[in-house]
Amino acid sequence: MQIKKLLTPYNYSTGTADRIxxxxxxxxxxxxxxxxxxxxxxxxxxxxxxxxxxxxDGEVWQSVEEKDIAWHCGAKTYIHPECRNANSLGxxxxxxxxSGNLADTSRDWYFEDATVRAAIELTKELMAKYNIxxxxxxxxHDVTGKICPNPYVYNQTQHxxxxxxxxxxxxxxxxxxxxxxxxxxxxxxGDTGECVRNNWHHDLxxxxxxxxxxxxxMITNKWYKYKGGWYFLNAxxxxxxxxxxxxxxxxxxxxxxxxxxxxxxxxxxxxxxxLWYNSMCEPHQKNLAPNRTMLKCGNSGSVVLPDNTKxxxxxxxxxxxxxxxxxxxxxxxxxxxxxxxxxxxxxxLNFQIFKICKGQVHPIxxxxxxxxxxxxxxNASDTFSFFACDxxxxxxxxxxxxxxxxxxxxxxxxHDPSVPVIxxxxxxxxxxxxxxxxxxxxxxxxxxx
Length: 449
Ligand SMILES: [Zn+2]
Known about the structure:
10% of the residues lie in helices and 37% in strands. The protein has 5 helices and 27 strands.
């Protein structure tokens, strides 16, 4: 067990470990805690002492080395034939009082459960260490007749001396929770008292995972292979997840379950340009009904391209904003349609969809470039439409999609330059340019795409 040490330089006689034959249990007889008692006895000559103080929360403080002789059960007269300071260890248990009646004979002294548990654990460790049988674990009362430990003399609270003695010979005290042992940390399951070995421990409250080796020691600063996947345990033993780590000039991505990614992942630049792992892509974070669909229709727009518009000039025809955060691995199909009229003798326009998602500055093209081309003047209009898909998006993304047209050629001159014609002003307009989108859940996992 974990023991804090604050040795008194004043209150003991030197001895050797082979002197230890008995363990004597006391109560403090005042309201102070273990640390406070330890400090008090370390501060000056008192003329009394004990080896250990067991506190209200089960904490244990040591005041005198075990081999040395503490002054805990000395008296002018004894009722025990053999037990003395010189052949015993003294354990003081901190004690509560329910009424403020602090007399030796008060019936209001009682122990906290944690104090009793820890005193039993400490006593058992010392019994094992010095080969002391349970019948040599006795009360101060048994040595001198003093009413100490008060609750174990009167035995009228829920904690009795019989129960204390019984616990010493029953099954070992079950360890529970984190224990620092053997140069490492172990985690004990309270119900079995067994430490976790070759397995994970999941701290449910903080949602942290730890791995323990065959000796039950927590692994730190190490890659660990588990069921075909690699996991990284950091310096605190915590399994990292949903993050990037750099090691020896290489970068590894740990998914939101901590598994090292071996398939393509999405990295997003933050405001400072640093890349982060967009773990929102992962499907298990959402628990949505499958196969949802949404249709979104944009407003239609019109653009008139001025005469003699030069090649390379672009116009945005229509835009559509889509919030896909209620979808799981969404796929979007866009449909664009428009009506093109032109008096030009030759007209070539390129069309493409671009998107800008949250946090992005530059538009990203979606789908191929579509080309409208007509190389003679007509009076009728042409319907021009195309579709494109965007499945390369992650959950929780809100993107604005735009259809942009780029002029390749608007020519008023005749196609055949050898035929002279009267120049006319070419009027070109794109009408009813409209974009609609159908958004669906993609059944495939994002990371398996
Ligand atoms: Zn005592």
